[in-house]
């Protein structure tokens, strides 16, 4: 069973480190893959131009249907030029790693290529996992639109408490948690010809558990191919360097100063029209920024465009999260205040500017004390790139990083997998439910420390969730 994900390992034609042929650092197939480096890799505290891509040449709207316009957009995406090459790699490899710049078309196009290549024949489906509900919904909706079908028919999505699929569904976008649930009921995932693990570089717990499970499924099915992704493990930069960044962004500026610096960018109307996406660390920060922005906006001169402030964070109900996708009224600039929920997968129409203060709230866990906490920490380079990639998806855009180029260089290359910084009780229970009793021997891509696993086993035993033999009660 093939399954795929960006940035991963295991390609027979690659270098053994998960890189497929092409230009350096694992970017596949060379040539024009994604917008130029300026989309993300050029760090700067100053403005960063993003998203310069091949121009989409559209005939006047009066002469083309919306479908044709969408088709033209699809053809102009960088991934379009490597369709057959990609499909061939999927056919030849059990596990394939697909790496591409943000916005190049991995999430929306690759599944359609697989569909055209016959992976959905005979009642089989292609599953595409997403770490977040909102991404599963919006991407499925977009792909359905591109394919000219109703969402829920050939293209559907499945998230907790909402199953928008039907017997005719062939491409199924779903949260990784939902695929894990399905694996509980059908350990061979027999309805899927292929699983695509999207945004695998985020290394959420669900993604990591899926990686391990899919390896087992592959072995058992002894079938076609999988494409997984393993973000490359690079030597960590020094703790001091990271502390520098954190200090600069949190300690040396009071929160209000920090907000004001972002605020200046948000409402400083030097830039041409276009919506703004500002990354903040959590609900509280978003709410206070929302109040501050609204207050400032109320004092703007009537000549200045209006400001519409829209928040998005995980605890908001889905319908409210969807407000970020509604266009701002004419003459109004939309400012979206988001946590890292908006960091990957999403294309929010109208976003021209991204403001990245460089911080994120992340889980941390001390296995010795058993204490789990949420800490504000610097983003990784991969996260910074993802953030900048939210601009320039429909037209050129800019990313404002509120930290220096020097500090950018000292960021970790990728985020520490969540599985290495959380209480493992849930993971252990989940594995036990899959019938995997030897949790210490499970094929984790990045094994959590022995002490963390043992502590979780002890904890579950003391709660009465495990028997003396270590089995699920
Ligand atoms: N909902 C949408 N509305 C408008 N354009 C969209 C939408 N979704 C995708 N697109 C267009 O399709 C392009 C490809 O998006 P896609 O999500 O497939 O890229 P990606 O390579 O998966 O990006 P990322 O790595 O950021 O997830 C975007 O750059 C954008 O131009």
Automatic annotation (TrEMBL):
Protein EC: 3.6.4.13
UniProtKB keywords: ATP-binding, Helicase, Hydrolase, Nucleotide-binding
Cross-referenced Gene3D superfamilies: DEAH helicase family, winged-helix domain (1.10.10.2130), P-loop containing nucleotide triphosphate hydrolases (3.40.50.300)
Catalytic activities: ATP + H2O = ADP + phosphate + H(+)
Domain Helicase C-terminal, chain residue ranges per copy: 264-435
Residue intervals of the Helicase ATP-binding domain: 87-247
Composition bias type Gly residues, residue spans: 13-33
GO molecular function: ATP binding; hydrolase activity; nucleic acid binding; RNA helicase activity
Stretches of the chain forming a coiled coil according to its record: none
EC class of the enzyme, as a word: hydrolase
InterPro entries: AAA+_ATPase, DEAD/DEAH_box_helicase_dom, DEAH_win-hel_dom, DNA/RNA_helicase_DEAH_CS, Helicase_ATP-bd, Helicase_C-like, P-loop_NTPase
Residue numbers spanned by region Disordered: 1-53
Cited Pfam families: DEAD (PF00270), Helicase_C (PF00271)
GO cellular component, one term: nucleus
Highest taxon above the source species: Eukaryota
Similarity remark: Belongs to the DEAD box helicase family. DEAH subfamily.
Protein name: RNA helicase
Organism in which the protein naturally occurs: Physcomitrium patens (Spreading-leaved earth moss)
Lineage, uppermost ranks: Eukaryota, Viridiplantae, Streptophyta, Embryophyta, Bryophyta
